[in-house]
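hey so u asked for the seq, here:
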Amino acid sequence: MKVLNLIPMLSFQSPKLFAKFKDEEILTISPIKDPNLKDFIKCEIGSLSYVLAMIVAELEPRIYEFDIGELSGESSVGEEEIPEILEFIESLDYILVDDNALNFHFDKSSVLAFLNLIALKSGAKILGLNGEINLENAKFSELKELPNFDGAVVLKHDLDDKFVGGPYFMASSKLKDGDMVEISGVRRVFKLDRDIKGTVALLGLPKIDSYIYEIAKFSKV
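ran it, structure tokens below
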């Protein structure tokens, strides 16, 4: 069984899906490396629409004409990695996605349309954190420019009330282990987790009502 995983931290965000697919052939495309998954292609935060655009441009070149060099540069996914992805999705069983990432994506129409095409071409089912997703009515309009996510960033979720990041996030944000901060309308104690790589921290919130990635804006309490 082959699984294309687009959920940033699958083992954390959905232990149920992780348990179901952990022994299958999984390729993850994400800004964050899940330490419990092996095959991984790193992309820039917020660049999923550009990565998917490079894929569909190969699947349907007469319909989708994009500047692949520009998309590659902006997403940090090399043009040489696209054939690897295309080969993987030739006989794909599942595409795993984060519902909140889709619902609040700044280029939602592009992402949904591209996912639908990939699913149709590969015969895959699309699974979100809450079950199967049907995107057959998704329509592409225009590929939007990527927002800027330079600096320390948080990945928002509603699984707990913790604020956890790795050494690179701590250095970028100038936070220390144990600092109390006000962030995204809540108070949290920052905790260092050396297993988390990169400048993205995990921030638990009561509810997700905007895009899952956000520049870390906080004040110490």
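The chain is about 30% helix and 25% strand. Residues 122 and 129 are 21 Å apart (CA to CA).
lmk if thats what u needed
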